[in-house]
Specification:
Layout lengths: L18 H35 L3 E5 L3 H8 L7 E5 L14 H4 L8 E5 L8 H4 L5 H20 L2 E9 L2 H12 L10 H8 L1 H15 L6 E5 L3 H26 L4
Parallel strand pairs: 1-3, 1-4, 2-3, 4-5
Helix pairs in contact: 1-9, 2-9
Length: 255
Amino acid sequence: MTVTQLVRGDAEHSPGNAVAAHSEAQRRSQDRWAAQESRRQSTHLVVSAELVGEHRRVALERGRVACRQRIVEHLDPRHYSVYSYSKPSSREKRHHFLWRFWTKVPGLGGLCIFDRSWYGRLLVERVECFATVEQWTRAYDEIVGFERSMVMEGVILVKFWVQVSPDEQLKRFESRRDDRLRSWKLTDEDWRNRDKSDLYAEAADDMFERTDHDLAPWDLVSGEHKKWARVTILETLNQRVEEGLDRWDKMNTPH
């Protein structure tokens, strides 16, 4: 699976070419999106309550801002945390690169979202040469081992990658650049990273191939249509949590 493949088809949500058809299809698509998001959020509340009641825990990796809001907006804030990571501090650099993430793994009945995570070692640190070849090459096995140990201890780990096409990304960048209320979301680094898109795509493909495993598979989602991507993420998250609960029950059933 490569980052350029659309693993969640959304052609059925595309409106027609005629103006009238476009307007009607858009209205219907909006109605369908709202109804489906409401259903997925209701299911998410039930699943989250089950997590708290059974003292299970979930770690969600690489959530986009709008997606994070949809995931947590109706949840009890006592039971979830959101962690955003930038470059490691001088103190964090004194330790193994996974050290700063260990203490943030949620406790029983909790949920946390990692906005950027240990996968920075395989992406930005690899592409920008912040890690040596030996370091990021070794990190594949270290990350899989880290994730497997978490899952074996009862963590349900869900990993998302939201992919947009270069044209759609440019459209969004330009929209933010021209909007004074949203321009803060766009940085010089975002533009520089576009120039290295091929290197990041290659790094991401290697990451998927080497870190997709049975206890924590990757879920790739097309982000061309933001609202439908949110529905897909909620739907997939509910499914992964249910699978995790079932797996834990089987692992702890006496033979």
